[in-house]
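Design job #97: recover the sequence.
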């Protein structure tokens, strides 16, 4: 039972980290644009396709992590139910 809880917590942390990465990338992009494109480089975009490419990689990663979290929760709950039934069955014997 401990391993199934550890698995769910690992998937939960991976999903949370993916969400944080998307938030952090947006915040970093705004600061980068403010300091370089709108600042020192006088409206010259140094990384024109980088941010969209990064978003195209991060968003599916978050979706996969969320799906893995849901599957992990489902399988862990099923496993815990089986284990509880086995414990209760052994107590009746």
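Job complete. Output follows.
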């Amino acid at each position: 039972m401990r391993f199934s809880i550890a698995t769910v917590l690992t998937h939960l942390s991976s999903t949370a980290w993916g969400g944080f990465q998307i938030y952090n990338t947006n915040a970093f992009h705004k600061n980068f644009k403010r300091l370089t494109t709108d600042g020192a480089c006088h409206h010259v975009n140094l990384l024109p396709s980088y941010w969209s490419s990064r978003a195209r990689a991060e968003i599916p990663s978050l979706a996969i992590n969320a799906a893995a979290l849901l599957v992990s929760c489902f399988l862990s709950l099923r496993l815990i139910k089986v284990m509880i039934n086995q414990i209760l069955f052994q107590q009746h014997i």
